[in-house]
């Protein structure tokens, strides 16, 4: 059967406002709905076409004119045909319908409580699932206002985007909540939640009420998100010089949630591990993650909600910008976190790793059918998008960036915009050719490899020839059209960052008065979205002083060299020689990226039969740092020491470190005896679980902990441990456990990928599972399963 060609909705009828009344049902998991849509008919017609999915229609009318509904499941549309033509002008479309609370984590779905056998309801409408809750124009350009009423059992709380204006008790034991009308907005930002909640609350400097909703009894776990949320809202209002336009900002933890979070205007939904933090049970990494995710979603309240992309082709504008702004906000609110140092490993190099593949895609790609949208909610849209925006920010400066953003957000408030609109505002603010430079970064896949070669070096200084080619992870450096690259560099004689715009395939850079025992490093602070390959002279000048560079530059030196080795441009021996220069490294953010490179070498060594030799090398590299920080917190710890402790000991867990094995066995036994105990430093809990798991002969104790831990964060750490067991028999049982009801669907993939990454045996086991369960995976529902 031939698939119907995708078409966007017709433009002869447009929505103005929705008046929606839903009756959720937590017993039948079906809901009844009534919606009255005020529309503007732009040309005479007898048909109105909108989106709909998993909805049964009871009846419909337009004004007093009767109408029929014809749903098309394949195109997820419904066509309403009236008995008489509709004249040009405004009309009211009224539809009664029935929908389902599915368990696919999309639409208006059901979610099971963390530690109780009861359900609540939540929504996830992005990108195209509002149509599962009501018939609507489910495209971002069709903005409208929404008045919502929800009728729920009296014992339940019902939340939506706006504040409650009325609550009426009904005779059947239900209560109907009515909410203020929303600003004009896209359908994917509409939201409802129904359940039994506690909350903590506070207000911003401008009086915005902020609440963090949790399951009953754990509201204290929302305290940090509340603090961070208030700080970020204050920061964004000041930075954009535009007030948050709603009277309240609710944020809620949802047990079953496919994405990390969703920026619904005024009711932001989060996977519980992305918003809950417990001082006694949570890791420092969790605290930082909560901060980053909260900052990201709140950035969307302006960039995405107030101003929205016209179509999903411009998705990167939403996600890339919010990802950059999350770091800018956290850097302002929590400067001791040094969060832009972390950006290099967690965002910048994640993007470069993917974009170096021939299978990558441009930041901005044409999107047609809605099924294509999920494919671009990926590392390129988020991480490369954020990285090129950061490059732009560093190039034009904070003042011009800030001015341009205010201009853009003011001009397009409550409207839709294109990428070119943003470039125009930033060009006007900076006086620089932003559009000309940035189009080369957003409109094509890949990035440049800049090769640096000494042309001359004498008493007058150094001249370096820079050459750009497209980096390819499989073919090395290949000829391609030139990028316009903002080149920056630092040198040994002073700390000043110099800049030059490289537009040609090759340029010479003169560095005056640089002695022959000095050094130069290009891409200072890793601000430009490119990699650098040095000739032997320049590399040997940097290598002895690499530990004196900034953390960002230390990461870049090893990461660029490692990428060159993988692509066959450089010998692996040079990387391993450099690796020994990092022994005793005490910065978490340097290790965060470096450990990934070393892990790949460990896997390669295992496949070549050199597993024990690789373990010995890694013990040599990691042990000095591990010994310096020990297992427990102490007064000498800096902010990031907890993350460092977890990382280096976690790497040694894979290397048969005798002292760690003893420590892990002792603490694992105590945890099994009492899963609620808080005797162990949370930053080391995952290390202990994973180390002990590698020694287990059965899953019994791990499953006991998985069941007994009260927080989802702890359960998630245990799932990683279960994925770390050794031996084909235990791996098979771990795979079965991943598919059991004990593991939430959203967490299944992390357990399975841990097994795959654990060893060659693990990869073989997962490959066999994929083949045996292919029917399951090809029908797997849930577009964000790998989003954290």
Keywords:
single chain, 788 residues, alpha+beta, ten-stranded mixed β-sheet, five-stranded mixed β-sheet, 29 strands, 38% helix, globular, zinc, M1_APN-typ
Strand order of the largest sheet: 3-6-5-4-7-2-1-10-13-12
What is the radius of gyration computed over CA atoms, rounded to a whole number of angstroms?
28 Å
Main sheet? Answer: 10 strands, mixed
Helix % is: 25-40%
* Residue-averaged pLDDT: 94
| Low-confidence region ranges | none
Family: Belongs to the peptidase M1 family.
InterPro entries: Aminopeptidase_N-like_N, Aminopeptidase_N-like_N_sf, ERAP1-like_C_dom, M1_APN-typ, Peptidase_M1, Peptidase_M1_aminopeptidases, Peptidase_M1_dom, Peptidase_M4/M1_CTD_sf
Keywords: Aminopeptidase, Hydrolase, Metal-binding, Metalloprotease, Protease, Zinc
Organism: Oikopleura dioica (Tunicate)
């Amino acid at each position: 059967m031939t698939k119907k060609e995708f078409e966007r909705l017709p433009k002869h009828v447009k929505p103005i406002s929705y008046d929606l009344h839903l009756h959720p049902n937590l017993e039948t998991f079906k809901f009844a709905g009534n919606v009255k849509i005020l529309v503007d008919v732009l040309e005479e017609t007898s048909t109105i076409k909108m989106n709909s999915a998993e909805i049964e229609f009871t009846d419909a009318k337009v004004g007093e004119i009767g109408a029929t509904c014809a749903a098309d499941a394949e195109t997820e549309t419904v066509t309403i045909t009236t008995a008489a033509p509709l004249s040009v002008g405004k009309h009211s479309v009224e539809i009664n319908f029935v929908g389902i609370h599915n368990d696919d984590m999309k639409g208006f779905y059901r979610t099971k409580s963390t530690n109780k056998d009861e359900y609540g309801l939540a929504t996830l409408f992005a990108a195209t699932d509002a149509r599962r809750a009501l018939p609507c124009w489910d495209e971002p350009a069709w903005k409208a206002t929404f008045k919502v009423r929800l009728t729920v059992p009296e014992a339940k709380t019902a939340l939506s985007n706006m504040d409650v204006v009325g609550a009426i008790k009904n005779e059947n034991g239900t209560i109907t909540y009515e909410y203020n009308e929303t600003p004009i907005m896209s359908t994917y930002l509409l939201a409802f939640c129904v359940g039994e909640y506690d909350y903590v609350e506070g207000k911003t400097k401008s009086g915005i009420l902020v609440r963090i909703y949790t399951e009953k009894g754990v509201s204290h776990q929302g305290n940090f998100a509340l603090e961070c949320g208030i700080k970020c809202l204050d920061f964004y209002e000041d930075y954009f010089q535009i007030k948050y336009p709603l009277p309240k900002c609710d944020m809620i933890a949802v047990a079953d949630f496919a994405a990390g979070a969703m920026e619904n205007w005024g009711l932001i939904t989060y996977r519980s591990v992305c918003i809950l933090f417990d001082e006694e049970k949570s890791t420092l990494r969790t605290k930082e993650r909560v901060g980053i995710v909260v900052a990201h979603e709140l950035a969307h309240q302006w960039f995405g909600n107030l101003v929205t992309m016209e179509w999903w082709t411009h998705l990167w504008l939403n996600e890339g910008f919010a990802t950059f702004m999350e770091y800018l906000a956290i850097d302002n609110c929590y400067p001791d976190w040094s969060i832009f140092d972390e950006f290099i490993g967690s965002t910048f190099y994640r993007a470069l790793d993917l974009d170096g593949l021939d299978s990558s895609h441009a930041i901005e790609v044409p999107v047609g059918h809605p099924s294509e949208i999920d494919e671009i909610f990926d590392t390129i849209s988020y991480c490369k998008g954020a990285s090129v925006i950061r490059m732009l920010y560093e190039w034009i400066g904070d003042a011009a960036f800030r001015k341009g953003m205010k201009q853009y957000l003011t001009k397009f408030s409550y409207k839709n915009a294109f990428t070119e609109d943003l470039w125009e505002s930033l060009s006007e603010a900076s006086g620089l050719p932003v559009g000309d430079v940035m189009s080369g970064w957003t409109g094509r896949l890949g990035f440049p490899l800049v090769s640096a070669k000494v042309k001359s070096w004498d008493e007058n200084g150094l001249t370096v020839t820079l050459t750009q080619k497209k980096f390819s992870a499989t073919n090395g450096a290949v000829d391609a059209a030139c990028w316009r690259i903002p080149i920056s560099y630092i040198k040994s004689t002073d700390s000043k960052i110099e800049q030059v715009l490289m537009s040609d395939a090759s340029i010479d850079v003169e560095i005056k008065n640089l002695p022959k025992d000095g050094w130069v490093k290009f891409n200072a602070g890793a601000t430009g979205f490119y990699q650098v390959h040095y000739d032997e002279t320049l590399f040997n000048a940097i290598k002895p002083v690499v530990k004196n560079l900034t953390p960002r530059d230390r990461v870049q030196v090893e990461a660029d060299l490692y990428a060159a080795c993988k692509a066959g441009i450089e010998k692996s021996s040079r990387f391993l020689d450099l690796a020994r220069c990092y022994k005793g490294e005490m910065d978490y953010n340097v290790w965060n990226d470096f450990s990934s490179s070393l892990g790949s070498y460990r896997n390669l060594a295992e496949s070549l039969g050199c597993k024990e030799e690789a373990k010995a090398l890694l013990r040599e590299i990691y042990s000095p740092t591990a010994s310096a920080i020990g297992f427990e917190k102490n007064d000498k710890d800096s902010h990031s020491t907890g993350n460092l402790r977890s990382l280096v000991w976690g790497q040694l867990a894979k290397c048969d470190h005798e002292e760690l094995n003893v420590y892990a066995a002792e603490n694992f036994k105590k945890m099994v005896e009492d899963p609620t105990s808080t005797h162990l430093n949370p930053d080391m809990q995952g290390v202990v679980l994973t180390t002990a798991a590698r020694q287990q002969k059965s899953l019994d104790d791990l499953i006991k902990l998985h069941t007994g831990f009260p927080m989802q964060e702890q359960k998630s750490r245990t799932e990683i441990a279960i994925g770390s067991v050794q031996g084909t028999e235990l791996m098979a049982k771990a795979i079965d456990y991943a598919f059991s009801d004990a593991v939430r669907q959203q967490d299944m993939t992390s357990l399975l990928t841990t097994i795959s990454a654990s060893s060659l045996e693990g990869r073989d086991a997962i490959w066999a599972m994929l083949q045996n369960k292919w029917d399951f995976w090809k029908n797997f529902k849930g577009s964000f399963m790998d989003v954290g």
